[in-house]
Description:
Layout: H1 9-20, H2 28-48, H3 52-62, E1 70-71, E2 78-79, H4 81-92, E3 100-101, H5 108-122, H6 128-149, H7 152-155, H8 160-163, H9 165-177, H10 181-192, H11 211-227, H12 244-247, H13 258-261, E4 273-274, H14 285-297, E5 305-312, H15 314-320, H16 329-334, H17 336-346, H18 362-368, E6 371-375, H19 377-381, E7 390-396, E8 401-406, H20 419-430, H21 436-447, H22 456-461
Parallel strand pairs: 5-6
Antiparallel strand pairs: 1-2, 3-4, 5-7, 7-8
Amino acid sequence: MTKDTTSNPFTAGMARFIAGLRYEAIPQEVRERIKLLILDSLGCAIFGSELEWSRILMDTLSGVDSTPGCGVWGTSLRLSAPHAALVNGTLVQSFELDDVHRQGVLHVGAVTLPPLFAVAELKPGMSGQDFLAAAVAGYEIGPRVGMCMGQEHIVQGWHSGATVGVFSAAAGAAAGLKLSPEKTVHALGIAGTQSAGLMAAQFGAMVKRMHAGRSAQSGLYAALLAENGFTGITDVFENPYGGFCTTFSRSTDRFNREELTSGLGDRFETMRISLKFYSCVGTNHTALDAIRNMQARRPFGPKDVEKIVVRASEATREHAGWAYKAEGMTSAQLNMSYCLATLLLEGDVFVEQFSEGKLADPERLALAAKVEVVEDPAITARGSKFRHMVHVAVHLTDGTVQEDTVEAPRGSEKSFASAEDVAAKFTKLTAARMPPGDAKQLAELVLNLEQLPNIDVLLHALARR
Length: 465
């Protein structure tokens, strides 16, 4: 007897949206935004293709995988589709440069695009419009799952990119495969049971960067298996025992299933995804902007600082506010004290500011030790929409105190980057990885995706020649 896949309102409701979304139904502003988000993710991945942890991952997988099915972006390497999704997702997240849905606590492009590109290579002939519609499906689903779980999910110690991300991955791949609503339910259920990821990976481990890749891989598996009739948990969000919500939250009052389908198809979460202009965890960006704002009003440097107090949400304090220790690049990019010290010393916090030789720099360590991150219960109480809000007080050696409050960083949905800014970031990230002409062609293909009758030309442009 076939199990009913339509009676569970949240799982089935999301599946109907994923299976039914068409390019023509997507508002024009969302169509334009998704292209910018795709371009940004590809730039992040291409930059990441020559980093140490990326090289180790590619070398390891190419040693056990001789299937030349799908391309690894920015390289000449080809791997089986699941391994290509794993690597490409890792590349997007490889240097803390990629997008983030702040309320859903999810780097969306890193989990959505790799499985969708793999589907496009496995099933040649996908049009640009179909690709964009499938991408939007993925970009809509994961953030809603994150919003459902709330900031408690990450405070509890789960890494949402690895747990929540599987649903964006499965949604994008299922839409790319044009699965029916019934099979999409199964894809979500197969994806959900693969959710895993521990936030302790942020303390110096390379594996944190692979979490998005594992979500991308799991979502691809889910969609491909569902396509062939493999079944999953049909009530993955509703089930009171072993369902996603009840298992990944301490109690039923810590999640809100209504967020899963509220406004789905009318309100597009794609428009609330932020881009990064600092190469560190998005949690730190508001504090960095606050420092820049204060310096613009009254210039001061590292020698003028007696101490810095950052008042933030509980999630921010747990995620980024620990006492810095030189444990590796991941730890540095996620630690607020280190990043604030770097901004004061170097004037920016982009790729040039992070190198192994700086991680234990005594001057940087001493300045980082002057930063204290404390929870402000009033900010925590405002909920996940204000998770990144901070109030920063800089106590200067002359006895004065400079203060600034920032709710959302530059590049956020409240102050989204221009197309020119996104293109400039892409150019900067790809400059050392591919010839300028190739990078320009790639950017033009992405920004005109809706005009492509077949995206095979884009797949070819992503490979190093």
